[in-house]
Amino acid sequence: MARYHVPVVVFLIVTLLGLVSGGRDVTGDLILLPSEASRFFSGENDNDVKAEGTRWAVLIAGSNGYWNYRHQSDVCHAYQLLRKGGLKDENIIVFMYNDIAYNEENPRPGIIINSPDGDDVYNGVPKDYIGEDVTVNNFLSVILGNKTALTGGSGKVVDSGPNDHIFIYYSDHGGPGVLGMPTSPYLYAQDLIEVLKKKHASETYKSLVFYLEACESGSIFEGLLPEGLNIFATTAANAEESSWGTYCPGDYPSPPPEYETCLGDLYSVAWMEDSAKHNLQSETLHQQYELVKRRTANDNSAYGSHVMQYGDIGLSKNHLVLYLGTNPANDNFTFVDENLLRPATKSVNQRDADLIHFWDKFRKAPEGSSRKVKAQKEFLEAMSHRMHVDNSAKLIGRLLFGIDKGQEVLDIVRPAGQPIVDDWDCLKTLVRTFETHCGSISQYGMKHMRSFANICNAGIQKEQMAEATAQACVSIPAGPWSSLRKGFSA
Questions:
Q1: Which keywords does this chain's UniProt record carry (predicted)?
Q2: Is the pLDDT of residue 56 over 90?
Q3: For the whole prediction, is pTM greater than 0.85?
Q4: Which of 43, 145, 213, 257 could staple 171 via S-S, CB 3.0–4.6 A?
């Protein structure tokens, strides 16, 4: 093995840095720029070596209600990671309804946690777009950097340039081809993809990474996100399955006993807890993807989902520091290709997390108390709404395609690589027609979006759909879940 004396090593480093710098005198830079030599020898790719461009981040929780605690908790935790990584508030845009921290159900007012023994992640989080300002229009306008299209909020947008890197993290309920919002309308996959294409055409970023937590989240990019946009996306689930909540009542580890809701989501907790434990200057997007995929699958098909990747997969060779920054406290950590952070022993289907909350609240409330009565009412209202939406969708299928063929048509799953629907305007129209006659689909009913897409793919027109829904739903049930404000309609 060759041995070099210290003066020889110094000479080699000086020579190499001189070549990289185009021949400038760098002898005085050895103390100022030690990372350049270490990165040269570690083989980090050129994007990581150059301190070019600005890191931008858009964080959005697309739900409201205390039973959806985990979505805002996820986003607040993501913000804390980015700040520790060195991103500035002016470059981080946060969307969340902001009805959790001081909710009467929150046992620790003003505090939000993302794990059973976690610190407060709410402190210092910017309130850029909250309440009724958490809208599809504002979210898409922020991505495009279009200040004139905003309605309310702080006015912050992604005012990026051609050398900048953008990170978008979305945590919410979803369904085939759609993502939830606490306001109407919801976000359709085609509309999001069109905005990402426009952003690319504007030449205002170098690369963009999108992390998406939602049920059927793979359907947002499946067959829709083309290569060549310099976008790398990962999703909590494929196009056909639910994503999962974690740190829920009854889990191990479970939340503190005073909490009656899930604290986080399995995919989200996986990437954030991984980021908190690694040196992001040496961990790549691909390495994190593999670790998160293993943890989210949970080695148990009953409690887990398949994390997916889309777009320009080659970007996954980039180091996470480009998007999340890096916590100096982790600089000496060595990446280990093993996930020591194990998930909870079981998880909760995202669509059942509200029922878990209402049931745990009912179970813990004193007998005869108003709290117990309220929890029982909330549980029964949620179950009634589910039965109404499920039965209405099934009946519409039978009315349109016959008793024998109805469910078969509604359940069709297209081959991988195809979007769920060919005509997105048709899908929007049919969903709007359903809600007009049958009431809100809401967060639970998003599971039926594939059925509506299949109705469109079968050539059903608005008039036929209107006739079928009018027959299926003689009236709109009363109750908070049936409000049209909670649906897809504009």
A1: Disulfide bond, Glycoprotein, Hydrolase, Protease, Signal, Thiol protease
A2: yes
A3: yes
A4: 213
